[in-house]
């Protein structure tokens, strides 16, 4: 589960991570009030107005309606409300949102931390995530803060620092110092970075997160280390242990179909293809998507109805898939293990009749317990539903219906 920058910073502060101070606002007037309060608390006289959406690249992104960037600087208190007005309610398009963009409902009014001093401010990149190949967490860091890490990896891979954490012993002090040293820090900035990384890792483990990305981490002109931005991804499967964090969910930032699927207990991810698929089991779903591509189509979604699929879940799956206008055919691929194939077939027929006007062909591939009985139910239903037993047969039928 993704959360907003302002939420992420509050979470990090709770574990002793220093962050750029800010106050969230949802109207231009509230933005002005936030700036006044921020000035009183921090003494800042410049203010950063930051669009709050679940996507990166906000600084380079554009608001479609006004042409404003998603992150702008107000050098006077009087400018804050106007700059917020140019962002709030607009559609922000970045390289991560796609051309459709995301509506901005809130802005973060943040303090200026790039003030002059004894040394030049310097930006770094820092993230913590699970390295699935090695089976342990890894700290990634780079001196190239403010840039996309993918770009750094492509152009300057030698500038990416990686430190893997043994899960049996946890993060060790020497590892934190090694990262700070490789970032070229010394003196008080070195000590501050050591404290920053240690606190960040503590927050990462305590919140059961799947990824922290702080880009940039800033060394200020007086050698403080703080998070200017914060991307926190929480592990959905661990949210039952963190009721307070679960409440941070913003469903307006999520795909409406994925939200609806979640309410029905379905695992759904929307894709850009033309063949909707409904499968029981994640592994079989991945194989089904491969099969769709081999048949000349493109999967329109990932949809796992689980091992206990019935008429209710099948109908919910149909309704979600059919809301995608790109879907030209639906493939249901079920292995009858926990649930019998004839029950699935009956569920498909019931769901079809309940929904009514389904204008795309449906291929149902059944294998396992009572597969033949299930195929007979499909074939004798009189509906625009075609049965298949083997993967090859199902792929051929998908190809045939796509060709008309």
What's the quick description here?
By secondary structure, the chain is an alpha+beta fold. 34% of the residues lie in helices and 24% in strands.
List the helices and strands and how they pair.
Layout: H1 5-13, E1 22-25, H2 28-42, E2 47-51, E3 62-63, E4 71-74, H3 80-85, E5 91-93, E6 102-103, E7 107-111, E8 122-131, E9 136-142, H4 149-155, E10 160-165, H5 173-182, H6 187-206, E11 209-219, E12 225-227, E13 231-234, H7 243-246, H8 256-263, E14 267-270, E15 275-279, H9 282-294, E16 301-304, H10 311-321, E17 329-336, H11 341-355, E18 362-368, H12 371-379, E19 385-388, H13 391-402
Parallel strand pairs: 15-17, 17-18, 18-19
Antiparallel strand pairs: 1-7, 2-4, 2-7, 3-5, 5-6, 8-9, 8-11, 9-10, 11-12, 11-13, 14-16
Helix pairs in contact: 5-6, 10-11, 11-12
What does this structure look like?
Helix 5 (173-182) crosses helix 6, helix 10 packs across helix 11 and helix 11 runs parallel beside helix 12. The chain has helices spanning 5-13, 28-42, 80-85, 149-155, 173-182, 187-206, 243-246, 256-263, 282-294, 311-321, 341-355, 371-379, 391-402; strands at residues 22-25, 47-51, 62-63, 71-74, 91-93, 102-103, 107-111, 122-131, 136-142, 160-165, 209-219, 225-227, 231-234, 267-270, 275-279, 301-304, 329-336, 362-368, 385-388. It is elongated. The mean pLDDT is 90. The longest helix has 20 residues, at 187-206. The strands form five sheets. Strands 8, 9, 10, 11, 12 and 13 form a six-stranded antiparallel beta sheet that branches. Helix content is 34%, strand content 24%. The two termini are 40 Å apart. The chain has 404 residues and is of the alpha+beta class. Helix 11 (341-355) links the parallel strand 17 and strand 18 (362-368). The protein has three domains: 21-111, ATP-grasp fold, A domain (Dna Ligase, domain 1, 2-Layer Sandwich), CATH 3.30.1490.20; 122-246, 2-Layer Sandwich (D-amino Acid Aminotransferase, Chain A, domain 1); 256-402, Rossmann fold.
